[in-house]
Amino acid sequence: MNCFPVPNLALGTSGNSSMRLTRKLCAALVVIVPLSLLCFHIFTKPSSVVNVWNREAPKDLLDPSVFQPSEKLSHIPFKWKEDVLQLLPKNSCKCEAEATLNVPFRQELFGKPYAVEFASSIDESQLDETKKRREQEYKKYNIRYHNPTDRLIIAKANSPLQYPTQGVEVHPLKTIIIPGLSLQDFLKKVYKVTLSATMGTFNTAAEVEGVTIKGAGERRITLSSPNLDNLNRQLQFISYTNTIFNPNTADIVKFQTDEHSATFNIKIRHPRVPKLYDSGSSNSKYNISSLVTIATKTFLRYDKLQNLIDSIRKYYPTVTIIIADDSEKPQKVEGPFIEQYIMPYGKGWFAGRNLAISQVTTKYFLWVDDDFIFSPRTKIEKLVDILEKTTLDLVGGAVREITGYYTTYRQMISVFPGGKEGDCLMTRQGYHHAIEGFPNCVVTDGVVNFFLARTEKALQVGFDPRLSRIGHLEFFVDGLGILHIGSCDDVIVDHASKIHLPWSKTETDKEYAKFRYPKSSDNSQNVNHILFYFKNRFKCMTGN
């Protein structure tokens, strides 16, 4: 419809009337449409708009100025203690293979020292661009995972301010009373305190006579009174309301007088929702079938897999066994309490682990290789007992070879700061300390490929599916700081013999060996190093 038509003189009076009607209708639309849009905007507008990146870029947790002496102390001499300085973190790390004594069986007993520079695994023409991308991702990572509670706060000496140092928590967009606020000051005409925050507002749940309040309902509130007791009574009713939604962060609150200042944090987070597993019995004796699922990944070796299943059934006839299978021509594995999941051909080692564990519905899963064999010493109950009675998330056993030698592959893993070039990863054979009440068990950071784990915690870490051919340490590196790990050498599983005479190898054995033991020209190890370099931001690794 044309709201401003050109008059048609041939229409006469009727045409003029029609034109006037059209103009009135258009005028009405000009008024009604904007009003309608305005009403729609008002009634559908969200209550508030916030920046979900509402976090400052993290700064160094330890401010160098902390070590700067005040003028009062600068003249006092001191002497550094080298033995303690050696224990402190350095600004930049480097990886060097440690020199060792040349003693018999040194490598067999303690491993061979090594050092790897991960940047050498990246094409030199792409290294600068890769570094740039890694640094961009690292900055985003720091902002995303930085928490205000990581910030260093030093309480000044002899402050008259009383406040909570920890334990104050509020649910997102909810309100709490801040406990423990008080002022213990000298005699004054007027006592005044101020509270300020960045992610919430303050108010008073009750009003006390003789106290003046300014800024109620705002991010900064000031309370003053000529009577100290009245002021302290009012401080008992100070409320805090979180106004910026974030499911897991903290607000830094400043509590001040004219002469003194204190800082404390209020954690902002949802309540932790439990994920509980029903074992089906409240008896003290463990029902292994209800508590544990056995998980494995197989590729081609159906004869060894069947030997594993047969050995499990001797001791645990009703425990569920989950099999992830990426063979080219998968064979159906039948039997009670067996679940077989077929994957694309050659999908890989860690992808198979992810698939198998994703199907576990029990509290724990026991990871085994498909060429293990259970024996009377493979007591799952012992591993369950330690996870049930400790804070450990994962506990490894021992793997016995046909020669009688067995390994726990206990690894201590450390990360040292290395500046812009990346951090340094260090692994050492060994453990941190023994576990009280479990004489054969220790705390460590990495274990052998035979372990019992809490399903939820292992899923939280996951297995990087890009590690298709070679991978073990990578899972424990990703779990560093997440998984609390133990190792017990009195729970033992046997390893099928790896000794094969050349003429006894089948075509399946040869095909499997090509995947399991790649040639030096294969880039599988290169993939691991590139992931360490970019994903974990390591520049190098050293170990034994």
Automatic annotation (TrEMBL):
GO molecular function, one term: acetylgalactosaminyltransferase activity
Keyword terms of this UniProt record: Disulfide bond, Glycosyltransferase, Golgi apparatus, Membrane, Signal-anchor, Transferase, Transmembrane, Transmembrane helix
Pfam families hit by this protein: Glycos_transf_2
Subcellular location as annotated: Golgi apparatus membrane
One GO biological process term: ganglioside biosynthetic process
Assembly, per entry: Homodimer; disulfide-linked.
Family in the record: Belongs to the glycosyltransferase 2 family.
PANTHER family: BETA-1,4 N-ACETYLGALACTOSAMINYLTRANSFERASE 1, GLYCO_TRANS_2-LIKE DOMAIN-CONTAINING PROTEIN
Descriptive protein name: Beta-1,4 N-acetylgalactosaminyltransferase
Organism name: Xenopus tropicalis (Western clawed frog)
